Amino acid sequence: MVKEKKVIITNKTGLHARPAAQFVQKAGKFDSKIEIVFEEKEVNAKSIMGVMSLGVGKGNEITVRADGEDADKAVEELVDFIEVEMAKEDE
Amino acid sequence: MILLEGIAASPGIAIGKSLLKLEKEIEIDKENIENDQVEQEIEKLHNALTESKKQLQELKEETAEKLGEEKAEIFAAHLMILDDPEVIPAFENKIKDNKLNAAAAVKEVIDEFAAMFAAMDDEYLRERGSDIKDVGMRVIKNLLGIEDIADKMDEEVIIIADDLTPSDTAQLDTEKVLAFVTKEGSRTSHSAIMARSLGIPSVVGVGSELIEKAENGMKIIVDGNSGKIYFNPDKSTLDKYEEKLEEYEAEQERLKAFKDKKAETKDGHQVEIVGNMGNLKDVVPILDNGGEGVGLFRSEFLYMDRSELPTEEEQFEVYKEVAEKMGDKPVIIRTLDVGGDKELPYLDFPDEMNPFLGYRAIRVCLERDDIFKPQLRALLRAGSYGNLKIMFPMISSLNELLAAKEKVEEAKAELKEEGLEYNPDIDLGMMIEIPAAVMIADKLAREVDFFSIGTNDLIQYTVAVDRMNEQIAGMHTPYHPAVLRMIQKTIESAHAEDIWVGMCGEAAGEELLLPFLLGAGLDEFSMSAVSILKIKEVLTKWTLSEAEEVSKKVLNLGTVADVKDYLNKIKK
């Protein structure tokens, strides 16, 4: 089962540093294969090196794509993490 | 005897034997492996990874215990790299596909990743490149069975290295390290900062001659005050330094007693002894040396080494961090002081005939809301997290001061409307560094909560001496009677309006000048962290009334030489 959703990064540091580490750890909890797509590049969402190498900054749109049993839940929770948890960082 | 010179990065003197820690010692065999060796190399790789993770886990725990959680975070980041699902297969593929031995495979992968990160715009990501190298070298050392330098330290040594990484310094038995000397680096590189927080001398940026001349077990003198290093010193040099070292050690021991004591005179008159800072990391030495706050936080570093203005959020994070680290201790942050000798490439200012008399500091900020407002907003917001105070530089008239205060009010109104948290009662102060400000100090004092005298510029403008011009450098002295009268007049005008006065130029940390400043009524002395303990000690030798006598006498003297002679004569 493949599921994907687009999301815009709104926090100021983008998907770097601490937010990236937390995101990767969260992705690692799911069994599905999870990828982030950004500007034609696809990386493993469970890899900190992969995620940071994308250089996703504030205002960029990425696609979170999951393939596996828990794909639905993975996409929903990861998008939610970006929209809610990461946005909190700026408050 | 060989004499080399570098950057004096951490004060003190060390005499001892050298121990070299050089990356060049690691040689990786690049010869390809046979097909039937692939499995064996992969197994070796995994053993080395397991060993590396074990070491990192231990380092993380030890560092957290010794230096705090924050310093240990770096090892958590290293562990994450070794757990990364992309990195491990990359190592394996180099072995399988390119038929490299495990060490060469790891080297190639880390070089590729490091190059990728080094090419990024974001400073944070560029730094991650060195983490990757650092963690990769650990795996390689484990693969090659290279003993770590820490295992070779059976006596006290002076470490000589290309550069030192957080991994290196965390592994060293710091009790046995007398000094760091590095080929690379600046005052802000990791080894310099580490040396200062450990309180050991360090000379950095010595250059490649260091590596060419140094051998293991050589007798070396490191002078962290002047940046000199002597290899195999002759007898007279050695005698001289042994004597200096003894004096220095005795003094350090004596001064430790002042760390947690309040800054006060013999008769209990209290003043504040605080530190100057030029970047976030300076908080540590200020606190370690018993600083009672920050008297001058130069905000310029936030604007340097980048291609655009820092955002409000970026500034807010930094100010908040300092405020929180200092707790209830005061932190005075000076708003942007650019122009003059400090240029920012992305602010395209025209060249000027007299930059020090030109478009700089508050003169720029008052015209540029895009620069000033984000800084004021960030400061007001961070003011909710500690005892922050805002200080304006280069005020020469009442109009400028009122205009700056108006900007603060505007920023407050904006924050209020946006519902953001901020400190509405934040203290506002100004630098006294222009003679015009001294002459109208009585008027200015009614509009601020404090003054801080910036002696470097005040001398320059009072004596009309360009402080960057080496030919007339001798004229740039705080002992000029005109400068001393400027200081006295400033304090008198401030006290008449019940506001306090600090000093944040180099002169505040001068032992010789202390009785004069104390007697003139200075309330706060802000200096480099390394001077704090010494000044606290000198303070205890004087009573306020004695200092007042000194001050009166000094104000009657006519020349720099007379002032210095007198102060030297009465020095305690």
TrEMBL record, chain A:
Its main location: cytoplasm. It is found in: Cytoplasm. One of its GO terms (cellular component) is cytoplasm. Keywords: Cytoplasm, Phosphotransferase system. Residues 2-91 form the HPr domain. General (non sugar-specific) component of the phosphoenolpyruvate-dependent sugar phosphotransferase system (sugar PTS). This major carbohydrate active-transport system catalyzes the phosphorylation of incoming sugar substrates concomitantly with their translocation across the cell membrane. The phosphoryl group from phosphoenolpyruvate (PEP) is transferred to the phosphoryl carrier protein HPr by enzyme I. Phospho-HPr then transfers it to the PTS EIIA domain. One of its GO terms (biological process) is phosphoenolpyruvate-dependent sugar phosphotransferase system. Gene3D superfamilies: HPr-like (3.30.1340.10). InterPro entries: HPr (IPR050399), HPr-like (IPR000032), HPr-like_sf (IPR035895), PTS_HPr_His_P_site (IPR001020), PTS_HPr_Ser_P_site (IPR002114). This is Phosphocarrier protein HPr.
UniProtKB/TrEMBL annotation, chain B:
GO terms for cellular component: cytoplasm. Phosphoenolpyruvate binds at R298, R334, N456, D457, R467. Keywords: Coiled coil, Cytoplasm, Kinase, Magnesium, Metal-binding, Phosphotransferase system, Pyruvate, Sugar transport, Transferase, Transport. It catalyses: L-histidyl-[protein] + phosphoenolpyruvate = N(pros)-phospho-L-histidyl-[protein] + pyruvate. Residues 5-128 form the Phosphotransferase system enzyme I N-terminal domain. Pfam families: PEP-utilisers_N, PEP-utilizers, PEP-utilizers_C. Its main location: cytoplasm. Mg(2+) binds at E433, D457. It is found in: Cytoplasm. Gene3D superfamilies: Phosphoenolpyruvate-binding domains (3.20.20.60), Phosphohistidine domain (3.50.30.10), PtsI, HPr-binding domain (1.10.274.10). The active site is at H190 (tele-phosphohistidine intermediate), C504 (proton donor). SUPFAM superfamilies: Enzyme I of the PEP:sugar phosphotransferase system HPr-binding (sub)domain, Phosphoenolpyruvate/pyruvate domain, Phosphohistidine domain. Transmembrane segments: none annotated. NCBIfam families: PTS_I_fam (TIGR01417). General (non sugar-specific) component of the phosphoenolpyruvate-dependent sugar phosphotransferase system (sugar PTS). This major carbohydrate active-transport system catalyzes the phosphorylation of incoming sugar substrates concomitantly with their translocation across the cell membrane. Enzyme I transfers the phosphoryl group from phosphoenolpyruvate (PEP) to the phosphoryl carrier protein (HPr). Belongs to the PEP-utilizing enzyme family. This is Phosphoenolpyruvate-protein phosphotransferase. It comes from Halanaerobium kushneri.
